[in-house]
Amino acid sequence: MSLQKCTVIYDGKALVGLADIPLIDFLESCNITLPHVCYHPALAPLQTCDVCWVEQQGKRVRGCTLRSQEGMVLNSVDEQARAAREEGMDRLLAKHELYCTVCEHNTGDCTLHNTMVDMHIPIQRYAYQRKPYVKDDSNPFYTYDPDQCILCGRCVDACQNVEVNETLSIDFTMDHPRVLWDGGDRIAGSSCVSCGHCVTVCPCNALLEKSMQPDAGPFTSMPASLKRPLIDIVKTLENATGAEIISGISVIDTTLRQQEIKRTKTVCTYCGVGCSFEMWTRDRHLLKVQPVMDAPVNGISTCVKGKFAWDFINSPQRLTTPLIRENDHFRPASWDEALALVARKLLETRDQYGPDSIGFIGSSKGSNEEAYLTQKIARAIIGTNSVDNSSRYCQNPATEGLFRTVGYGGDAGTLADLVQADLVIIVGSNMAENHPVIAARLKAAKKHHGQKWLVVDPRRHEMAERADAYLRIRPGTDLVWASAMARYMFDHGYADDAFLAARVNHVEEYRQSLAPFTLDYAAQVTGLQEDALCESAEMIGHAERVCIIWAMGITQHSHGADASTALSNLLLVTGNYGRPGTGGYPMRGHNNVQGASDFGCLKNFYPGYEPVSDPQVRNKWANAWGVPAEHLSLKVGQDNFMMVEMARSDTIRAMYVIGEETAFSDADAENVHQGFTNLDFLVVQDLFLSRTAQYADVVLPGCPSVEKEGTFVNTERRIQHFSAVMTPLGESRPDWLILTQLAACMGHDWGYRHPGEIMAEAAAIAESFAGVSYARLEGWKSQIWPVSADGSSTPLLYTERFNTADGRATLFPLRWQPPAEEPDALYDLTLDNGRMLEHFQSTNQSGQGGRTTALSPHWYVEVSPELAAARSLNEGDWVRLISRRGTQELPVVVTDRVQGTVLFISIHQGKDGVNALTGEHHDPAVNTPAYKEVAVRLEPVDRPPFPDPLPKHNFRHGKRTPIDKVPVEDKWRRSDYVEPPAKATHPEKC
């Protein structure tokens, strides 16, 4: 946005403000309100409400279409403009029954109510008429009431052009226009993904959260048998007394409600996008999640989980008191008893078996401060570097690839860079379901600005369907594809020779290593057509700015680090680092998996990726922590994968697991469970009695993010602060407080009274966070590491130098190695697996309350049409999947999302889950299990077919209806539409 100023003459007054911004916003900055309803700063000018008329050069103009410019002269007090605004509001009220005091939405942000009050509308001039539709409550999270809908189109524009889900529309040619879902009148079964954006922007109560209904206000929960007559009485009274007396009562009601409602800024606890928003609560009742324009990542966008999946907060399954195992059963215990037991057992284990006999798994859903304390206890008290987090299961191969080539273990830039790219290559990443808010921004860039996409994935998901080029690759062969692209760049003059000469090492050595990677060879290995590879290479070569996005489809293979390296190599060859709109972007899966690694929950790094094996680094941390240097180990510790392995062999004797469902999430579940059973002592700190907690000797009840304060780091390296929305449930405690108290019980009274003190300590030691502070993260502000001492962020890395000793990047030669597990004659199919939009990991959080689970409650296996035909399988038939480790029985969903002999199941459901089938083969560079390399055979099971394993109401059955804009011209062409201030014959229809 330009910061240039301009002067606008408005009603004879000279107003000075920013140039080239929407007039309504310009006036707001000057403390002037131009009435409006359909306008929203996050949306295009819709021109549907007819409430914002002004006079310009003798003509009436809708103010929402104007942008501030020097010398603009406008008049809002013109009689015709005023009359047009009032007529516009009268028409809106003809479509909407005003009963604000008993309306659930009268909490202060109902645009229609507030504008009507500001305009001092004396009476509802047009008689309200009901529409021939019923209220739709078929969605678990929100309702649509056509009787209250004013046809402003905000929801349509948000769905079509911001979220770009392209579900909603309005057909103004209908006799009674209404909002449609895929052209139909029912939400369930449409392509609606329940992102909630339509609800967020709705200016009235037509679209409303179910959590607001019915008890958002003091009079709203009365039964319909009482509410309906009361509304009728009030409407009759309104005609006699005028609307302002009644609206005055509703203003009082709004004020009373707002005194009871607490609005708290927080950051989402689900994926790594890092959405922030306000939570509106009354005591422990979460009324709604309300995103705001100022949120640095998402603005007003959300997804189904961020907007709605918070029922776990008040779940009766929450842990609320410490538990101690006694005679193979858990009994409640006091905090003093539980912490004393944990402290004694850990110290005894250390003293008897040595520091490395204890392993710590920090939480990728906890805060940065909690990750910091986890590794501080491990290192400064126990004396071991055996500390890790769930990045071992997803992020570490990508981080290793970046360390090898460019030096920082994080995204090269921010979401702004992804949006600016000319070409985005999406490899092994189902973004629309795993990182939906970022996917929405990319979909908007593609729809409105012509951004190109190249998608490489074995499974045809939404991003593949929308791509300019889609390569359905053979699983586990991405290194060959990426290396062939790099060779093509050299061979056809697309390599950035100047960039390579100035900023990259080992260019010639790398180029020679590409000799085997011809397009012909790549086609043979990947199963792709050579001409498709050539076309893709030309797309890359001709693009000025390229970003590559990848995720677990790359990293969860036996050579995921090498594949990640190959992608970064390709970016270097083409000069796509260090400029806006370029770089590598491995998407982070959990809300703080980046931060847990950044703040030291890794076996080989202190916070800020400072190596534990460097004596100078050790001395620095020992001095800062006030412990003898020799107490801090120089030996790289064990990671998640090896801790469980060593527990089975009695080398690891005790473990402390915080907020991770390792028993469900780690590969080869039977061996994991055996390892936990073998431990002498296991502590689990969590919200629920998870599968992992069932093996514990002590269970400590932690708090979710909404019950504590701290910071998270998202996939962009962006640090954001979150505040406590409500107090801890029962006797549960914030994890940072538990760890602080545990340290004191172990003889190390650190004395932290607030998580801000913990961040201050980390920032004073780790160079990458030097300028990070809670003061600089106040409100909606954020910082992006590395952060200099003066607080300056680094949104785009590598603009001047790479994070290496000489400042130059490294091209890293690679050789192709096939997957460690491939199909054979006995296990002839490949089982792919991954996440689903509506679920999260083990569903310990997202599965509470049943609403998100209702979208797809059943586990199933996706089978291609060709395989289904060959095996005589139909939708709902039961099959047994048999791997080299175990078996699972599931019903079949036949879909072209998969092809040939590749199957797909989600990672979320099932008693033992997918990890009853996965094995211990792993990436030797980082010990990440090869979850995606599972060979299985399929056997029919003689059971009655399961009806609709993917329910008919699931959004995957929907058929989108894309449009470019709200078709307001169709409204204007209606025979019963006349431009205000002329009176309308059927205002309820237009």
TrEMBL record:
Cellular-component GO terms for this entry: membrane; oxidoreductase complex
GO MF annotation list: 2 iron, 2 sulfur cluster binding; 4 iron, 4 sulfur cluster binding; formate dehydrogenase (NAD+) activity; metal ion binding; molybdopterin cofactor binding; NADH dehydrogenase activity
GO biological process: formate metabolic process; respiratory electron transport chain
Residue ranges, annotated region (Disordered): 944-990
Record domain 4Fe-4S Mo/W bis-MGD-type: where: 261-317
Composition bias, Basic and acidic residues: 961-977
Keyword field contains 4Fe-4S: yes
Domain 4Fe-4S His(Cys)3-ligated-type: 80-120
CDD domains: MopB_CT_Fdh-Nap-like, MopB_Formate-Dh-H
Domain of life from the UniProt record: Bacteria
The 4Fe-4S ferredoxin-type domain, residue ranges: 140-167, 183-212
Cofactor(s) the protein needs: [4Fe-4S] cluster; Mo-bis(molybdopterin guanine dinucleotide)
SMART domains: Molybdop_Fe4S4, NADH-G_4Fe-4S_3
Pfam families in the record: Fer2_4 (PF13510), Fer4 (PF00037), Molybdop_Fe4S4 (PF04879), Molybdopterin (PF00384), Molydop_binding (PF01568), NADH-G_4Fe-4S_3 (PF10588)
UniProt entry keywords in alphabetical sequence: 2Fe-2S, 4Fe-4S, Iron, Iron-sulfur, Metal-binding, Molybdenum, Oxidoreductase
NCBIfam families cross-referenced by the UniProt entry: Fdh-alpha
Family statement: Belongs to the complex I 75 kDa subunit family.
The protein's name in its UniProt record: Formate dehydrogenase major subunit
Organism: Kosakonia oryzendophytica
Taxonomic path: Bacteria, Pseudomonadati, Pseudomonadota, Gammaproteobacteria, Enterobacterales
